[in-house]
Amino acid sequence: MAGQEDGQLQKNRRKRVERLKKIIVITVFAAVLLPILVNICLLFLLHGANARLKSLESENANMQSQIDELRAQIDNLQESVTSYEEGQKDTREEPETVLESENSGQDVLTGDGVKRVYLTFDDGPSKNTEAILDILAEYEVKATFFVVGDTSGEAKALYKRIVEEGHSIGIHSYSHKYHEIYASEEAFFEDFYLLSDYIYDVTGVRPDICRLPGGSSNTVSSIDMAGIVNQLNARGITCYDWNISSGDADGHGLSAEQIALNVISGVDTFQTSIVLLHDGKDKDQTVDALRMILDELTDREDLEIKPITEETPIILHITH
Ligand SMILES: [Zn+2]
User: How far away, in angstroms, is 276 Cα from ligand 1 center?
Assistant: First the structure.
């Protein structure tokens, strides 16, 4: 019996040992296999992520090259715009009469029966300014120059000559680029004082008169012109438009005779005449016209030709 029991016990022990072995094998197997499986899964995931990363990278590279392409196109366009603007510069320098097809018809009675004529020259100095100054000196007439910014030695000498010979010097615009100066009030005053400071440095005179590029009623400005005029007035600057356009900048290439006729007939109409002329580099006809105008007007006894000063009646196209 005892032998049988022993046998049974040994059998049971073996069974237990067998079971333990199985458990150990399974445990070891699981301990080894699971991490391997997990690692394999992770490897798969990593591979997928790598593939996604690679495709994103290639997408990114594509987008980058598209961006570079667009940038190059923008640069090209910018260049075209710049060269177009350069090409347009000459015609844009004198657009006042293009914008102002009609004179305002404003007149100011002088009260003493003597006509007063104020000849104004915009957009200089240029190669024509010297000839204009020579003619004015010859006829002993003083005029007004609404100048632009030019840092050349010739221009500096002309600013000085304008002042030294008793003419009035006023602000027109440093850059004379409408789209820049009329983009904002800030841009306008930046341009204005750039020129004001420059003229002061060169001539010792701080201009207190101005002619707004395109006139006060220009249609290109995106800022309120009446507001600009008021702010200039508050800063001690008086703005002048004109009531006689000589037509020397209307793009039709008028002859000197026609320019002179426009001015003289205007002067016949008004008691106070503020005459718009230009001393830009391509305004050769204006030089010849000036001699004709002075030949005609300086002989008249009931007429004075004067530079604009703070006593000059204001002629302005807009109300402010
Ligand atoms: Zn101008």
Answer: 10
